[in-house]
Amino acid sequence: MVVEALLLDLDKTLVNVEDFTDYCSALAELDAAGYAPRVRGPETYWGRCTKTVMDVLISLGGAEWARANEIVRRYELIGAERAVAMPYLDLFLAATERLPKAIVTLLDAEATSLVLQRFAIKTQAVVARVPGIRPKPHPDPVIHALKLLGAEPDGAVMVGDSEWDEKAADAAGVRFIAVTNGRQNHNFKTPYIANNLKEAAKLIQEL
Ligand SMILES: [Mg+2]
């Protein structure tokens, strides 16, 4: 099946924001405000603070979510200003230029726009962390991105570095390319494994 649309995770797939975001301070603020995880997403390789912050955010809804989100986004905006490109970002974008793309990210919407601007990443759609769309690992943002692109699940491929991305893609019926960033220990089930964006671009051409 030919690839007609790409759904792209942002953090540590295209750009490294996490390493420049003080999720431990965000977590301390969440903790002080009384927010703790009630549910947990899949195990992945994020730092402990990052994972717990994301678990808190997927545990909350409504006004609680909005307050917690406000805390986390302050730190992510700082991270977005300091973020660096992942290896082969420019090569990947050039190799996939003809394909319609959507960003599907757990990052705050404003931090996401800042990163996309800074690295001149052009996409037809962006689904960031916003109220009203249950985040990854739910399939909702993937399904929303497909709608925005006018694409069908079987014509799309999602590229991401985390087990959360794979779970969301699987649940939406979208093929998944895992970018391992060189890690040996992962829980990906997809047959499409890339060490980096250069290998991911090659896999997209071969699918
Ligand atoms: Mg990621």
Automatic annotation (TrEMBL):
Q: Gene3D superfamilies in the record, alphabetically?
A: HAD superfamily/HAD-like, Putative phosphatase, domain 2
Q: Which InterPro entries match?
A: HAD-like_hydrolase_sf, HAD-like_sf, HAD-SF_hydro_IA, HAD_2, HAD_sf, PGP-like_dom2
Q: Which domain of life is it from?
A: Archaea
Q: Which SUPFAM superfamilies match?
A: HAD-like
TM region(s), chain numbering:
none
Keyword vocabulary terms for this entry: Hydrolase
Instruction: Cite the GO molecular-function annotations of the record.
Output: phosphoglycolate phosphatase activity
Q: Which Pfam families match?
A: HAD_2
**Which Gene Ontology terms describe the biological processes this protein takes part in?**
DNA repair
NCBIfam families registered for this protein in UniProt: HAD-SF-IA-v1
Give the record's family classification: Belongs to the HAD-like hydrolase superfamily.
| Protein name, entry field | HAD-superfamily hydrolase, subfamily IA, variant 3
Origin species: Pyrobaculum ferrireducens
Starting at the broadest rank, the lineage of the source organism is:
Archaea, Thermoproteota, Thermoprotei, Thermoproteales, Thermoproteaceae
